[in-house]
Amino acid sequence: MSSLQCEKCGSDDVININLTMEDGDPVAFYSCHGCENRWWNRSGEPLPLARVLELARRAKGAKKA
Ligand SMILES: [Zn+2]
Question: Based on C-alpha coordinates, what's the Rg of the chain?
Fold first, then answer.
């Protein structure tokens, strides 16, 4: 039984990778094998790609500083 399902094509052939941002935020990444749809989730809420990039950039900067 899989709770993962692609919203775009309905396929349940979805992989889930859980990541932790450098600032400690747990983020889940999903990728659909059916249609190559990809999306992110944080604390059960959809996370726009722009926000993910922002977090990643900030984490990178914080590491350098
Ligand atoms: Zn899909």
Answer: 13
Q: How far apart are CA 34 and CA 23, in angstroms?
A: 32
The secondary structure of the chain in percent helix, strand, coil, rounded to multiples of 5, reads 25, 35, 40
The answer to whether 46 and 39 have CB atoms below 8 angstroms apart is yes
Counting Cα atoms < 13 Å in the Cβ hemisphere of 28 gives 11
Q: Give pTM, 2 decimals.
A: 0.74
| Element of type H or E holding 50 | helix 49-64
Q: Give 26 Cα–ligand 1 centroid separation in angstroms.
A: 23
State in Å: Cα 29 to ligand 1 middle.
Answer: 14
pLDDT tens per residue, range 26-38: 899 999 999 999 9
